[in-house]
Amino acid sequence: MSSKSLRLLNEHIVSCRRCPRLVRWREQTAREKRAAYRNEEYWGRPVPSFGDPQARVLICGLAPAAHGGNRTGRIFTGDRSGDWLFAALHRAGFANQPTSTHRNDGLRLTDCYITACVRCAPPDNQPMPGERDNCLPYLVEELSLLGRVRVVVCLGSFAWDGVLRALAARGLAMKPRPRFAHGAEAVVGSYTLIGSYHPSQQNTFTGRLTTAMLDGIFRRARILAKLPV
């Protein structure tokens, strides 16, 4: 039942046009393209979540990249952040392969589901508050449908804040509000949130986030979710 319901939710997400600025930007980017991808057909729509409907670990990011998820139609697919994320998920036993280049590349996730706070690529990777709020109900519904999730890995402070907002909307507010940090943990109801620096080039190129640091996050997620390590 949850698998069918998640598919229906994703269909609803893909057809969303609630945010005029994001609609204009994602469609403009899909028309103009990046030179390296000029022969590809861009997705150019809201990007659905994906993964194992029976997942015990949920990973939440900020939003699709303009020439990543907005091009390929799958979150974290086809960009440098995804290169880091899926390699780490493969090492941690959540993914069957270490790379993700397009939405039909054979990637499968086990005990892991990936989502984002905002489903459309925003200009400069900066959604406006109203756009963030328009997308919040999707994350709230996902949390209700993913009934086995016990651990939420938040990639960046925006995702940390978004997940806390979604849990509060489900009646699971926490006071004082836990602060984001890499490796921070917070128990909210039946969920444990883990904070991680986002695997963006800004963090990985500067060494703020290392392979060992990201591997540590997913090792901890497996332990908290009571999965084999």
Walk me through the structure.
- The two termini are 29 Å apart.
- The protein is 39% helix and 12% strand.
- The protein is globular, with a radius of gyration of 16 Å.
- Helix 1 (2-14) packs antiparallel against helix 5 and helix 4 (80-91) packs across helix 8.
- It has a six-stranded mixed sheet with strand order 1-3-2-4-6-5, sandwiched between helices.
- Strand 5 and strand 6 (191-196) form a beta hairpin.
- It is of the alpha/beta class and 229 residues long.
- It has helices at 2-14, 20-32, 69-72, 80-91, 129-145, 157-169, 201-204, 211-224, and strands at residues 50-51, 57-61, 112-116, 151-155, 185-188, 191-196.
- The model has no long low-confidence stretch (mean pLDDT 97).
- It has eight helices and six strands; from the N terminus they run H-H-E-E-H-H-E-H-E-H-E-E-H-H.
- The chain has a single domain, classed as Uracil-DNA glycosylase-like domain (Uracil-DNA Glycosylase, subunit E, 3-Layer(aba) Sandwich).
